[in-house]
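PROTEIN DESIGN WORKSHEET
SECTION A - STRUCTURE
LENGTH: 155
TOKENS:
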């Protein structure tokens, strides 16, 4: 019985989110609806509303240096790709954390080149952040990390 209630609650939540996001309004009730026997092209409306962005973050290289990207309130990010060049001596660690700082995932770390390919299913919620830290003094002055993501409104 409780499983059914949970599903109903989620269904109601989903319908209210879609109604708000798509601006759906109640209209006239259609009777005797006829569906034509044709092919209708469709598109992913969510994909049309996502904005692709590419940003660079310069991390000053010294012991315990830290920099990060934060998902703004009211937004959601789908991380497509993250890139870190090699460093001379110091270790650069890149991780994903929640709004409260809870560690979720280490993307890469070390002195070697680092690549992370997120894909369409890797979504970050508002307040989550990508944390970049330097663990030791290095022979470099700064490391530039590139982030490619798609941003959408979070309803």
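SECTION B - SEQUENCE
RESIDUE ASSIGNMENT:
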């Amino acid at each position: 019985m409780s499983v059914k209630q949970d599903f109903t609650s989620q269904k109601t939540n989903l319908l209210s989110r879609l109604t708000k996001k798509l601006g759906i309004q109640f209209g006239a009730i259609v009777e005797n609806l006829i569906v034509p026997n044709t092919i209708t092209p469709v598109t992913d409306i969510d994909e049309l509303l996502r904005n692709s962005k590419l940003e660079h973050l310069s991390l000053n290289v010294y012991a315990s240096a830290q920099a990060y990207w934060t998902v703004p309130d009211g937004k959601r990010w789908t991380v497509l790709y993250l890139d870190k060049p090699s460093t001379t001596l110091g270790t650069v660690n890149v991780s994903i954390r929640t709004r409260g700082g809870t560690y979720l995932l280490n993307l890469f770390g070390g002195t070697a080149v680092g690549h992370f390919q997120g894909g369409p299913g890797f979504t970050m919620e508002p307040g989550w952040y990508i944390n970049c830290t330097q663990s030791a003094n290095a022979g470099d002055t700064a490391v530039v990390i590139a982030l490619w993501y798609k941003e959408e409104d979070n309803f």
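SECTION C - NOTES
The radius of gyration is 22 Å.
The chain has two helices and nine strands.
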